Amino acid sequence: MRKLLTVLDVKPENRLLFVTVNFAFFTSGLAAIMLGAVLPYILSNNQLSYTQGGLLLSMHQAGNLSAVLIAGFLPFVLGRKVSTLILTIFSIIGLAFIVLANNFIILLVAFAMTGIGRGTFGNTCNVVIADVANNKTPAMNILHSIFAIGAFMSPAIVFVSIRVADWKMSLLTAAILVAIAWMLILRSNMPNLTEREQDSSEKSGRDLSFLKKAWFWAPTMLLFFYLAVEASIIGWFVSYFIEVGVLPGVMAGFVPSMVWFTMIVGRISSALISKHIKRKNFMLLFFALGATICFLGLMVSRSALPCVIFLIGTGLCMAGIYPTTMATMKGVTSSVSVGFTIAIASFGSILMPGIIGALADARGLANAIALLVFALIGLFAMVLFKMAVDKKEGKYETHPKS
Fold first, then answer.
1. C-alpha torsion 111→113→119→121, nearest 10
2. How many domains does the chain divide into?
3. Over the stretch 292-302, which tens digit does the pLDDT of each residue have?
4. Which domain holds residue 312?
């Protein structure tokens, strides 16, 4: 661990904070992805339609969006630590509400609350890691690999919970882990503002000129399409594999684990190779093209082995897109720009799961999932746009450490 922190160029006084933030992101991944794993049980238990299931997923993402907007500005008023503690407690309450809920309206509120906690963790963890680790690109990839580890463990916890008691036990487990992360943050030395924000907090809180810049919109829209695909795969693919009959229910429950295991491998690999690649936009181009090709193969396959292979390929290719995009984006260390980027991009994760749910009731889930092909094409187009913008403005990275 000490060697890793040295490689990432984390100062000794910030190393405990670095570990705390990564653990918090781990619990965020575990709790958020668990919602997709238990969604079939929630729908069955409450006799809900695919459209209502899509609305639940969209409300989670809507809560995520509202949180990253609030978390982008609230630190300037209350400080980052206090604002993080206030907003992440919604995740604990939301998970408890899902366990106790017996009607659709309560579930909508609960899913939104879990989204608020997830969005707050996302904003805080990205900003703090970018500030305390000077070797930013591998640090970002490791952070999102930790999220992927939490996501990978979610279906296994659901499976064990069902065997021991029922699916609700898994959500209670997630709530306890998030509560531990909350207490660790309470005891941490998390600064009210990062060093860069302390130098220009007044300007950072009011200067929105980046909204007029192409270098802001190119990666933001890239992440819009990425999150649309990621949220839909994680939210709907358990139900998708059950409906098309590719995998039985028990095995289908481990689909998120398969996806996130490949994301772990992909993000760790991306963190290692990023140090040796100067022009990281070419990494994004390769990732986007590979994800599109693999997903097309997944859509035309109707037997278990090819589906699993193409799903793994999709996960591997998508793994490095989010952290690499964030690490190569100007202004990533500003809460305001990060908040706007994640908030705008989150509209993709809000809209797509709901659209798929509504279309699934009319045309079947298999046909609805095929919409993600267009999102992947949009993702690929935005990578090309980002490359053009970066080349025009001279922002290609020329140093491996970024």
1. -120
2. 1
3. 999 999 888 87
4. 12-195+209-393
